[in-house]
Structure prediction request, 488 residues.
Amino acid sequence: MSLLQKLFKQTFIYGLATVLPRMLSFILVPLYTKVMPPGSYGEVTLIYAWFAIFNVILAYGMETAFFRFYNTSEHRKSVAGTALISIGASTLIFVVLALLFKERLASVLNIEYRFIDYVIYILALDALVIVPFAWLRANEQPMRYALVKILNVLINLGLNVFFLLLLPGLAENNPQTLFTAIYVPDFEISYIFISNLAASGVTLLLMGRLYLVTKYIFDRNLWRRMMGYALPVMIAGVAFTINEVFDRVLLSELLPADIAKSEIGKYSACYKLALFMTLFATAFRLGIEPFFFSHATSEEPQKAYAQITNYFVVLGSLILLVVVVFADLLKRVFILDPAYWEAMPIVPVILLASFCLGIYHNLSVWYKVTDRTRYGAYFSLSGAVVTILINYLLIPSMGYYASALATLAAYALMMLLSFYFGRKHYPIPYNYRKIVFYLGLSILFSALSFYVFNRNLVIGSLLLLVFLGLVYRMESNILKRIFLKRRS
Prediction:
């Protein structure tokens, strides 16, 4: 029992540290949409899309390889030293080359040259803490791991609020002071990256002790084996990141230059409303994955897996419908400038796409517990191909609507592929009728509320009440058991 409690405690702490950075991007949306027009926010979003891609490339799977070899090797110091030297050397090479060719790099990435230095240094700082964070996890120090992650979020959030919200007023009301000296009009985008740079710098300072105490032993044979393990992980990570963020890059390349950044800004702001589903799916996955593995050798674990997926679909269907019904209220809270609201029709599509991704993660238990993880890479690559293909073909005529459809198509394909191959290799007795019923009904009610009745709150609320009534009727026995357990 103590081992299980420890497992869930660590899962909660790591989950909190994983979810908080995602929440930061959501919390900042009202601030960004208040102080920046869509074009400026589009520039920020595009740069962060490149951050996501380069973070995976600069990590090149070394975090996962570190876990694999640190936990199985008798010479842990060699693993730590080899990993640190590898990441340190590759990061140094990246910084030197990027600074030498930064004008060309800015042109290729389609971002303004004045921001390229921020991009290079933030990427370098984030790369250098990959192994120290992995070391904390490998040595079971979840509290320190979470505290540093949370501090990073707080510094970033605090500086954003100071620079974008407080500093203009302080400079205006306190002339001839430090506030006036550091305030620069129309400097919002740079302030955002200065905040990120400061947070990343503090994080490296807090995590840098490993660099000072490690004995730098570089084992060439060990490094080759680590790279052999890491590179497939990187390929899968790049493919998955393409599914998540590459649509912004393609929008910047395929739309007319005079409107591209503005369209990206509108699309990205409304896309954030799907984060309710993303956070639910992420928290559910982080909480339940240890259960998947701990029950893999128990008697008939497939029944438990099926039941968990049923619960996920019920809750996910409810979240889908709730966010769609109250979308007009949410946009007024989180997207403060009406100039962004033009992209609201993508919200149900992106919510459904995030729901499909969550179902995919639940279905993926079969290849994780049977050590067929290569299928995860195949599915992610398939989704990446669909993402690129649909965006490339349809963006010129449909704009960001094509990107929303591409996201849905990619995640739906990954979900269906995992389901199809899972039935072959590790059959799980899912309640197909119930899953299809809840999923189909939530999609139907969402479409009626949002597109047919034009987001009428009264009709949407009635549809939501009907859905809740059906859930209670079909799941009342389970709810009663839970209720009775709580009372007993």
